Amino acid sequence: MDLPLDSDLAGDRRTAELLTAIAFRAGAAILRFDCRNVSMRQKADESPVTLADEAAQAVILRGLTEGFPGVPIVSEEADRPESPGATFFLVDPLDGTKGFIRGRLEFTVNIGLIVEGRPWFGLVYAPALADFYVTLGPNEAVTAHLVADSARKAGADVTYVEAASRDADSIANALGTSGCDLLLTVGGSGVGRTDATVAALAQRGEVIAHGIALQPGRTTAVGRIDNTPVIALQGAPDQAFAAWWTLAVPVLDRLSGRRPRRTLNLPLARKVASGVGIAEIVLLRRKQGTWVTLAVGDLSLDAVARAEAWLVVSGGAEGFAAGAPVDGYMLRE
Q: Which of 7, 96, 175, 184 is most buried, taking the most CB atoms under 10 A from its CB?
């Protein structure tokens, strides 16, 4: 696969989506291990490495080798190439192994891409916290740009602002609402050390709720600054889009006086099962006059890209029977 060397955003996104999917799979591999009972050894520098590190590395190396053949990989836990050249991947499959062993949640999967000697892509994914940060090219946050593009397609006039840093004070300084009818933030709505945006919102205005019964999107926050509604989306694309569809789009439509979104009623090709107590997003695609389910609750970027519509299974329901007619909210008008 050729690497895009200039800032063609469409090409950038395809690359970013593939790398993000690899990171999500590596995070899932880590979470399969019990941190309190995982096999461990020491490296030459006496730092620990566990089976979780090695499992995540195997997922990443396989994904990068298949997706970007010929691009060298410099990894924390692998033999390093003698001369990776000016373009290579820089990987730490489990950053924070010592904390992971102690049961801490702040460990991350890190993937970077250096192109012609310059940082081109950087990804930090905290699977236990469901939080995610990514930069692409010069200061581009992929999730934020994806959401901004969706807002523009929905008819909104979008102003994009990036905080100088990821601490609460810097984010608070960037939360301006002058001339703004709806304020969306992306990233920093997790738990513990990753909830800087929520802390910033509390500084500038009011946090009405932090944490909603929606999967994905559980640590989404809502609030207001003066009279402007604020929705704090998570950094991971699937988490952000779930809250964007269910919370932000209806608010945007109400503010703009737009008619309700178009739905299409079709029978389900198969049963949709969902757990009681939390609403779950279902992604749908048409096939032979029925809705085919692509994903329920856990939304891969591939499923998001292929989906034509979505619906929500409410927290009080167990799903829908096969053949049941359901209204899918169309993703493309």
A: 184
CATH number for the domain whose boundaries are 9-136 = 3.30.540.10
Residues of the chain with pLDDT under 70: 1-14, 43-46, 77, 79-83, 118, 135-142, 190-194, 301-302, 333
At the topology level, CATH places domain 263-330 in Beta-clip (2.40.340)
Q: In three state form, how does the secondary structure of the chain look?
A: CCCCCCCCHHHHHHHHHHHHHHHHHHHHHHHCCCHHHCCEEECCCCCEEEHHHHHHHHHHHHHHHHHCCCCCEEECCCCCCCCCCCCEEEEEEEECHHHHHCCCCCCEEEEEEEECCEEEEEEEEECCCCEEEEEECCCECHHHHHHHHHHHHCCCCCCCCCCCCCCHHHHHHHCCCCCCCCEEEECCCCCHHHCHHHHHHHHHCEEEEECCCEECCCCCEEEEECCEEEEEECCCHHHHHHHHHHHHHHHHHHHHCCCCCCEEEEEECCCEECCCCCEEEEEEEEECCEEEEEEECCCCHHHHHHCCEEEEECCCCCEECCCCEEEEEECCC
Give the architecture (CATH level 2) of 142-256: 3-Layer(aba) Sandwich (3.40)
